[in-house]
Amino acid sequence: MDDVSGFRTRLQAIREQLDGLDYTVLPRMSDAEMVATMTEMRAISDRMVAGAAVVTDAVDKANATDHTTGTPLSDFLAMKEGRTSSRGLGEVKRASKIAHHRVCATPPWPVTCRPDHAAVIGEEIRKLPRDRMSGEQVDRAAGLFLERAATTPPERLRKATAQILEEVAPQAVPSSHDEAARIAAQRSRAIKNRRLTWGSDGDGSTWFSGQLPDLEAHQLIGTLQAFGEKGRRAERDEAQALRTQREAGAINASEYLAARVEVEHREARTTGQRMADALIDMVGLLGSLEKIPLRGRSDTETGRHPQLRPASRCPRGGDRRRSGPRCRR
After folding, report:
1. What's the distance, CA 106 to chain centroid?
2. 196, exposed or middle or buried, with CB in 10 Å at 0-12, 13-18, 19+?
3. Contact 120/157 with Cβ under 8 angstroms?
4. How are beta strands 206-211 and 195-200 bridged, if at all?
5. Which of 50, 136, 160, 289 is the most buried (most CB within 10 A)?
6. Distance, CA of 323 to CA of 306 (rounded, Å)
7. Inter-residue contact 80 to 68 (CB < 8 Å)
8. Which residue has the higher pLDDT, 32 or 107?
């Protein structure tokens, strides 16, 4: 059996083993057995995700889907897995990060190299000034990232980059001038790459996709989170007020029940739903301040809101303040 057929045979065996698992035995397990089973399965899942990323990156580098189907990989994933094109592209980029450095891209898989950590490690290693580092120093940096990954969440792992670089290659640490130039160039690229697109999902909803420079994105996220937290406080206060009114006899049982059900409905919203509602509230508030009529009717020709236009119609890289109200992004 050659290496290629052996790889495919082992993959098929993994699928068959997974198909043979009987989940009806879970209720008969002790708590300790269930926890151990969950931990093991999640570890296996992480290894499969990391392995799939390595294969996905290999397919991307070889342009294999272009050669076999005439379709770019991001579009191929979108069609094959029911994703949007932007999500497909995101999967390709994430696979590239995970597979970037051999410490996370080749077996035996490090226990701490979970997919989310591996993506961050690959991204941060790419940012290192490798032109001023030896291959051994880069490998040492990757090893230190892995050590920290055992006890550090992925996003906090990013903050260790400067310390790791100082430890493994102090001569490569950028000067304040170099760092300022890097930040300025990064900011310029982020502004150029800003975008917002949307379209119908065909089932009564509209999807949005886009990106903003970090500064503006953090402002938007902070505002959305503040709106969402304000809503949580209002719901708690309203529930308490209803209980007080009911205890005082100010409302009868049916009135209390109807009002409490409505509050519980709002309390049951997921975080994502709260953020979406907060965005709607912000747009409504902005529209009232700017005296912009916000019509809910969809444009039957484009399927998009008549007051808004996709960012792709704006001059690429143009000044958003000079492109007119319809081109603001």
Report:
1. 25
2. middle
3. yes
4. antiparallel
5. 50
6. 18
7. no
8. 32
pLDDT digits (tens, 9 = 90+) for 17-44: 999 999 999 999 999 999 999 999 998 8
What is the secondary structure of 6-53 as a DSSP string?
HHHHHHHHHHHHHHT--GGGGGGS-HHHHHHHHHHHHHHHHHHHHHHH
Neighbours of 218 (CB within 10 A): 11
More confident residue, 91 or 300: 91
Instruction: Answer whether 0.70 is exceeded by the pTM.
Output: no
Residue with tokens 């301040």: 289
DSSP states of 269-326: --HHHHHHHHHHHHHHHHHHHHT-----PPPTTTSS-TT---GGGSPTT--TTTS-GG
DSSP 8-class letter at 204? S
| Ordered DSSP codes for 233-248 | HHHHHHHHHHHHHHHT
Question: How far, in Å, are 52, 60, 76, 139 from residue 122 at the CA level?
Answer: 15, 16, 24, 12
CA separation for the pair 188, 178 (Å, rounded): 15
